[in-house]
Amino acid sequence: MHKRSFRTALAAAAFLMPILATPTFAAQPAPQADVFPPWQHGENNDATNRGLEFTVTQVDDLADFHGDITDPKLVLYVGGNYFFAMAPLVAEFENEHPDYKGRIYWETIPPGLLVKQIEAGGTITSGNMTWTAKPDAYLAGLKKVDALIGQGLLADPAVPYATNTLTIMVPKGNPGHVTGLADLGKPDVRLAMPNPEFEGIARQIEASLKKAGGQALADAVYKTKVADRSTILTHIHHRQTPLFLMQGRAEAGVTWQSEAMFQEQAGHPISYVDIPASENTTAIYAGAVVKGAPHKEAAKLWLSFVHSPQALSIFERYGFKPYTGKAPTD
Q1: Do 200 and 146 touch, CB atoms closer than 8 A?
Q2: pLDDT tens, the chain, 330 aa long
Q3: Residue 210: Cβ-neighbour burial (10 angstroms; 0-12, 13-18, 19+)
Q4: Neighbour-count burial for 277-293, b at 16+ CB within 10 Å, e otherwise
């Protein structure tokens, strides 16, 4: 080889060596932001000054805690069954009562866990963070609210405002071929079901399972299939059930009708199977002022608002019906 050509080739090799020695990595797919909570992209937050925006899908994400904890004028503990309705409800309330703009804090974890937080003085820990938010009003099922009034945690009266019914949430296309509650007892149908320990909906679900297939069906879903792990018990059914369905971890799960409607409205690959009235169970939602509430008058104002025509029109977007004074069917 000519000396000049050799020097040229040597220089080219020296230039390429660092490049060739550097390992190449395939581009990693972006997280499925539309699949993982929070699904409202920060809209469920009435804070006017949000400072640094830092939400990382699947990693740093407090989907069921909303607003500014610094100095709220109203703190709401809301059973998470209608977390998706809270942003428009708060916006309407603040429109009617501008003094509360940006000063409402609310949580939407399961009602049984909210009770534990009340008993802990309003203190809660999530990940590495601990904070205290003493509640002014608690909102959940009417029977739960009445029971807590009896225990002295809430003050009379209970204020009912809306009703909801059950449905069977399934992935779009219904790969498990679920046609009704009876199919949930099949060994090959994987389920995501609310935990009876602290999720109030589980009581209504068990009542409906018994209507559809007796104690045997209820036991199959909540005992046999839990034992063999074909039923996953959730901790936050209104977040985990649709997520597990979209991830392929389950093929069905019983939720409130409103939650399935929200998932469809959000454009997620979720559908649902209707439960006939003869097997369904109706829940009545109610609220009450928490004993020792720091903002008692604000709590009363919210409880008056949630059964107003303006609030009920928001609930109706997701299939809720106004409470008419009839007794629950369970």
Answers
A1: no
A2: 454 554 544 444 444 444 344 444 333 333 455 677 776 666 777 777 888 888 777 777 788 999 999 999 999 999 988 999 999 999 999 999 999 999 999 999 999 999 999 999 999 999 999 999 999 999 999 999 999 999 999 999 999 999 999 999 999 999 999 999 999 999 999 999 999 998 889 999 999 999 999 999 999 999 999 999 999 999 988 989 999 999 999 999 999 999 999 999 989 999 999 999 999 999 999 999 999 999 999 999 999 999 999 999 999 999 999 999 864 444
A3: middle
A4: eebbbbbbbbbbbbbeb
pTM score, whole prediction: 0.84
Tokens of 89: 């409800």
Length of the chain: 330
Q: What residue ranges define each of the domains in the chain, with the CATH number in brackets?
A: 65-162+283-322 (3.40.190.10), 164-274 (3.40.190.10)
Q: Do the Cβ atoms of 144 and 287 come closer than 8 Å?
A: no
Q: How many CB atoms lie within 10 A of CB 109?
A: 25
Q: Helix 309-316 to helix 83-96 angle, to the nearest 10 degrees?
A: 150
Residue 321: alpha-carbon gap to chain centroid: 20
Rounded to whole angstroms, the Cα distance separating 326 from 321 reads: 12
